[in-house]
Amino acid sequence: MMRAYYDPDSPLELPSRHETAGKLSSATNPTRSSLITSMKKIALTCILVATLFATGCVYRANISQGNLIKEDALDQVEIGMTQNQVRFLLGTPMIKDPFHANRWDYVYYLKIGRKDAGFKRWVTVIFEDDIVSEILKDQDLSPDL
């Protein structure tokens, strides 16, 4: 058996382009084409995922905040009622102003998905000596809620 050794003085003989073209096309073309096909699929998948996130198609949960006050319960609140009676009808106020202990604010809004709040309500009950003295219904809330 004869072994070939590298001789730095001898010219390096590379096979010609035509000799290797036939060998590569017959031996590696099926593998190469399937590799290119799978790379195209991966690239297409990446583009689709990036497009999905770029368009903002992300689910937003509905947000319901505050005290939901029904109209019939609010109609039962009258001037002259005690704080306990109002609490029984409307529930505990969402906002108790520490600077105005005699004022109870009931705020409610429902925001569905990315849209602005579809339902908003703000009711204020003002007390004098723990007795209802004034009821402010349907006050305006910020439009950007």
Number of helices: 3
CATH topology group of the largest domain: Beta-lactamase Inhibitory Protein, Chain:B, domain 1
Low-confidence stretches: none
Question: Can you tell me the number of structural domains?
Answer: 2
Order of helices and strands: HEHHEEEE
**Could you say which overall geometry the principal axes of the C-alpha atoms support?**
rod-shaped
Radius of gyration: 38 Å
Mean pLDDT score: 76
Oligomer: single chain
Biggest sheet statistics? 5 strands, antiparallel
**Distance N to C terminus:** 88 Å
Q: Specify the helix fraction band.
A: 25-40%
Strand count: 5
CATH class of the largest domain: Alpha Beta
**Proportion of beta-strand residues:** 15-25%
